[in-house]
Amino acid sequence: MKILVVNAGSSSLKYQLFDMDTEAVLAKGNCERIGIDGMVTHKCPGKEDYKANADLKDHRAAITLVLKLLTDKMLGVIASVEEIDAVGHRVAHGGEMLRKSAVLGEDEIKYLESIVELNPLHGPPAISGFKACKEVMPNIKHVGVFDTSYYSDFEPKAYVYPIPYELYEEFKIRRYGFHGTSHRYVSGVAQELLKNKNAKIVTCHLGNGSSITATMNGKAIDTSMGFTPQDGVPMGTRSGALDPTVVPFIMKKKGLTAEEVEKLLNSKSGLLGVSGISSDCRDVETAANEGNERAKLALDILVHNVKKIVGSYVAEMNGIDALVFTAGIGENDRDLRAQVCKEMSYLGIEIDEEVNATCPRGEIADISKKGAKVKTLVIPTNEEYMIALDTKNLTK
Ligand code: ADP
User: Fold this and answer.
1) Torsion of CA 227, 233, 234, 235, to 10 degrees
2) Which residue lies with its CA nearest to atom 27 of ligand 1?
3) Is 368 within 8 Å of 352 (Cβ atoms)?
4) Residue 180 in contact with residue 220, Cβ under 8 Å?
5) Predicted pLDDT at 121
6) pLDDT of residue 34
7) Residues 222, 106 share a domain
8) Do 95 and 204 share a structural domain?
């Protein structure tokens, strides 16, 4: 069974073609600068990478090019588009209604269109990506996999904000949580490694965007991102959680509009805002190692907040069996992992510094100290595989 996974952003369309009988990735790539000038990268194992400029005026042009590459005599991996059995679409927001991955029909799309206001950045491109794919592949099933759905079993105490309840009823202002597909994947792998479906697991997805999730008995019970992906720990350019009063205060002092302050908190804060150097953790670390105090402060704030949230989830679950690191920083940044796990022995979290410093990148690693009560694991995330798996299960 061949499944195409599509992740449409405002100016990009990433794809992976899976053979779900063997779970192999047959090809993957990215169409970038859609609506600007257009560029495509296409990779297949065993073949040379292909990179070229392309005329990509919209998502339809992008998916048409992807299908052309996948079926190309030289660059391709399938003989015809008919070999694709189903398409899985990454959708950031499923709102309150789309609580599980679902075959996308008219009702689902109408609902997604109705909640665009909750998801103005990622909603419209995901919908146009879906529509473009449906147009060029009308006879197969298209499945939506939502970042929010992992959190759909939350108890109200975890998702209702302590503001007038009518605001939740009227505008659906609540904690939704994001990165759910990644947290679902890595916590599932951790459960398997622990051979315990009921394990208490805290998963730290630390990348450009970062979030932390608590999973217990196979279900997420809390997560750090909220109404939007702005909440929680500081990120590359996002502030993470703040005293809410900071927002109107900045608006008054700087004479900013709502949109302007939102931009400030979204794209000028986090690691970039504090360090003044970069949103990229590697650049900030290099500067910190060279003695830049603000770069060091930016990293200290990140570590401090990750520890704080991990600790609060241990309290919520009355324990922890595994702490998991994933995504760009979590998988690769040994120093940051060591900082987070430092002085956590009270909670049973202790790592083997040597194993942490030498574990190979891109592989699952158990970095716990021998005899530690809690397993500390590095698990590379694989959201695309999760999307392909849900798509297979919903269409086979
Ligand atoms: P996104 O949220 O865009 O998917 P990623 O998960 O790819 O982002 O994470 C990007 C972040 O990972 C960047 O801050 C980058 O600096 C960091 N990162 C990647 N490799 C390393 C590394 N070897 N050491 C430290 N940080 C790294």
Assistant:
1) -80
2) 329
3) yes
4) yes
5) 84
6) 93
7) no
8) no
